[in-house]
């Protein structure tokens, strides 16, 4: 990301086994922000863009965010070493 004129900052992180849950959480957050923009726009004037039903979007976004956060939280917990498996 740009940090100033001719200055850039790079942030990196590692997700195991992959970043799918984090990606889904980011996607859900973007969808929620987009829905809020559509709602604000429709209140200001009539929108020419067809908006999906707010209830279905909210339900889908809420479920995706919840699942992504739970998965991310689970990946941050330390792994138990020495657990005996049968």
Task: Give a description of the structure.
It comes from Pipistrellus kuhlii. One of its GO terms (biological process) is regulation of DNA-templated transcription. Residues 7-75 form the PID domain. This is Amyloid beta protein binding family B member 1. There is one protein chain. The mean pLDDT is 72. Helix content is 56%, strand content 6%. It has a domain at 19-74. It has a two-stranded antiparallel sheet. The chain has 86 residues and is mainly alpha-helical.
Spell out the blueprint of helices and strands.
Layout lengths: L1 E3 L2 E2 L11 H25 L9 H23 L10
Antiparallel strand pairs: 1-2
Helix pairs in contact: 1-2
Organism: Pipistrellus kuhlii (Kuhl's pipistrelle)
GO cellular component, one term: cytoplasm
Keywords: Repeat
Name the shape in a single word: flat
Beta-strand segment tally: 2
What string gives the helices and strands in order? EEHH
**How many individual helices?**
2
Q: What structural class is derived from the secondary structure elements?
A: mainly alpha
Q: Strand portion, in percent?
A: 5-15%
Q: Report the span from N to C terminus.
A: 48 Å
Low-confidence stretches: none
The rounded Rg comes to: 19 Å
Largest sheet entry: 2 strands, antiparallel
User: How is the largest sheet built, in terms of strand order?
Assistant: 1-2
**Averaged pLDDT:** 72
Helix content: 55-70%
GO cellular component, one term: nucleus
InterPro entries: APBB1/2/3, PH-like_dom_sf, PTB/PI_dom
Domain PID: 7-75
Keywords: Repeat
């Amino acid at each position: 990301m740009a940090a100033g004129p001719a200055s850039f900052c790079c942030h990196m992180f590692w997700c195991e086994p992959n970043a799918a849950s984090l990606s889904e959480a980011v996607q859900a957050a973007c969808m929620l922000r987009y829905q809020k923009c559509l709602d604000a726009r429709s209140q200001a004037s009539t929108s020419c863009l067809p908006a999906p039903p707010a209830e279905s979007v909210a339900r889908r976004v809420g479920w995706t965010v919840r699942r992504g956060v739970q998965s991310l939280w689970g990946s941050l917990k330390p792994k138990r070493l020495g657990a005996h498996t049968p």
